[in-house]
Design a protein that fits this description.
single chain; 109 residues; alpha+beta; DNA Binding (I), subunit A; two-stranded antiparallel ribbon; binds zinc ion
Length: 109
Amino acid sequence: MARKYRDDFASQDVESEPVVCSLCEQVIPNDQIEDHHLVPKSKGGKIKVSLHRICHSHIHAAFTDAQLAKKFSTISAILNDPAIQKFVSWVKTKPPGFDDEADERGRRR
Ligand SMILES: [Zn+2]
Ligand SMILES: [Zn+2]
């Protein structure tokens, strides 16, 4: 009896699709995925995007909820901001598992 060759189809395996950060467009390690409401929940926003923890906290450090709701309710609007552009090009140089504990931002709001 010929043994059936196992299909290379690993569709049984529920390896979840890699989640890509909407801000820096890099894959987010599972333990760093955070949801960001494009319009803050407090302003009635429902649309969420997935971001790195560090990218997410950076957005909230850069903008207030009011600003987010008014001017920065899309990723492209956020990416148009020069400070965000600077951050994104910086974060892209970091390895995938990069965590913000190591960052040397002295300023906190
Ligand atoms: Zn990111
Ligand atoms: Zn958020």
